[in-house]
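Re: beginner question about structure tokens

> Can someone show what the tokenized structure looks like for a real chain? I only ever see the sequence side.

Sure, here's an example I had lying around. Input first:
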Amino acid sequence: MSIPFDTLELRPELLQALAQAGFTSMTPIQAESLPLMLAGHDVAGQAQTGSGKTAAFALALLNGLDPTLMTPQAMVLCPTRELADQVSQEVRRLAQRLDNVRVMSVCGGRPHRDQVKVLARGVHVVVGTPGRIKKHLSEGTLKLTGLKVLVLDEADRMLDMGFLDDVTTIIKRCPKARQTLFFSATFSDTIHQLSETVQRDAKAVRVEAHVQASVLKQAYFKCDQSQRKALVVSLLAHHQVSAALVFCETRTDCDDLARHLTSRGALALSLHGQMEQRDRDEVLLQFANGSASVLVATNVAARGLDIEALPLVIIAELSREPEVHLHRIGRTARAGETGLALSIVCGSKEAHRLERIEALTGASIPEGKRPEASHSLHHLAPANSTLLILAGRKDKLRKGDILGALIKDGGLPSDAIGRIDVLTTSCAVAIARAHVDTAMRFLRQGRIKKKSVRVVRLGPVTS
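And the corresponding structure tokens:
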């Protein structure tokens, strides 16, 4: 039975923000954890991606804020910059009806000096990655004397990435009289030990893994190791989707498979944790705006990335951890949409991994009929290419400025211009491939808001 948010003792402004966002009733993790957090208890919550845990702890920390005190009162630690951005956006959305609440994302890969200036002006909620948070603490540019709530989001991923020492150092700088909230997909022995050390009588909340068979269809396909790439091609060719996410276990596998798929006619880009942050951002921009049709990723893309729901996810190799499978397939069948998740199983070790996944979810995954072999993925040639204008919000550029210049002065038809992302120092513009050269010539020779701009084309040039 669904439980409405207005049964909780939440600020009226938060209830208004929830209604505006279209949230009426609580998800299981929210119903279990929010009453405990609002009562001031420490909570150790176990839930999967898409469970609503971000909104749960965001509501809890916002409910106790004092907007008149311009000091960090809540801090959320995240394993990646992408997740930190996603969390900060959710906190801002829920705080929109509260007066003068400032939320700041503090992550690496961004100008340190700018962060120092914003922190000096005062913020209420800090969301960031351990490395950059630790740096600000050591320099004295971030002070936590007024901190009331500390949240560790995706704690298992944070420790897997080697942040245990940084997290421990940060926690020691926090006031002892605080509320500490842990949220994690899995609770390893290390996380249990950390919880027992830094939390006070934490209330354990666990939401069982559940896959809705009515909206998410799964199947697995057996093959020999040497046939894995060919089977991925055949599955993509058979299902004829416009975009897909493919998961691999290693960086090398990602790069190799992306090259293989591109050689068959798709435009596939790889995404993994050993890429520079700028390169990762550019890959995600191209995939989001239709300039790349297939994203081949390691588990870095399974959690915390702002990727819209996709019609198809292919797991080229099952993970050793069954919980990771749930994060992977959670990229499809989201927000009420149906989705398809197909897994490739090679050998007895991967067959055992499949058994562990079925034991975790309590449901069997059927074996699919292998499609006919195919070598062509030309239907996955992307409709767009991405042009990166090297000017952005700092230069007071807006979407309307770019759109107007390309149509009015550049002569491009409006339907040739796709998604426009205005970033701090750049703008990414999706342009229909037939009009890319025209757009490039205009941007190199013309002006936007009476200013010359530099422009580069992202990704490989396809015919």
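Each token stands for a local structural state, so reading them left to right follows the chain. The first strand starts at residue 43 and ends at 46.
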